[in-house]
Prior knowledge:
Mean pLDDT: 90
Strand content: 5-15%
Radius of gyration: 21 Å
Low-confidence stretches: none
Structural class: alpha/beta
Amino acid sequence: PCENEIPNHTRVAGFCRKFGLNLTFSLVANKYIARWVKDKRLDIVSIHGGTGGVFLFRKAGIPAVFTCHGTLYRQYHSALRQRWKWVLSKMEQGSYQRGDLVTAVSRDVRDIIETKYGIPTEKIKVIYNGVDTNEFRILEGVSKIENSLLFVGRLEKAKGISSLVKEVVPLIKKEVPNVKLFIAGSGSLQKELEEFSKSNNLESNIIFLGWITGEELVRWYNHVSVAVLPSARESFGLMIIEAMSCGTPVIATGIPAIKEIIEDRTNGLLVEYGDINTLSKTITEALNDSALREKLSIAGRRTVEERFNWDVSAREMKSIFLSLSNSSGK
């Protein structure tokens, strides 16, 4: 839906920012699907559903595979309940019922699709997100910033960034005066958090980097002591495997999807969502214990290489596409 320089594509823009670009983008995209199937002689339609995805309002005439990155049901029922998403969750449910197969990025997402949306087990396949371990890697010669933390993501309430800035960092500072939290991202809370930092003399402790990607992001994962993700909800947690792939120890919320990646005190550290004191103590412990960080670094990298390598995800998706194509006689 955005302006871009990608070759060989059709740009389909949503028409109503107030009601939601993603939903109106979905409405417009559905008008094109039948035309694309005919003009391009397509064999399969691959649709990314879930939060902000495309809703399929009618059958495409060829096999349709949905990739669910997160359910609107979870957003509606989470600790930060968003009631208006109930309507969208019903649209999402109908889309998956019309699809031929749904791939879920975690077992947590799969369980919701199966039990709450009524999608048969045989129509759901878990394919974890992955990272390119050659890109997200341990860099040689990159200096570590002492007592440093990194948060990567949207600056929104659901990510737990507000409590991290306003409550956790001030508590840690009492034990570790030179603690530094680097924040890579942007969002609706950015101005509020920047003003809080200034008014509470935390500008030397909290540094806003803006959105960073590519090699710069890899370097920041390598620069810091620990990566932190205190989210209220996650369908997977891509930041976690990016950090682990770079050998950066991770402290995250012990919610279902993240528990599929992290085993507490084996390849990362888990804390209950909203437990500010325990999160502060856990971060302080990690900053003060180099042996613990080294143990988590080695185990984290190994976890990604074995389970969340991009090549593994690609092979599984390729297998699904070929199977559906063969079954439809293409």
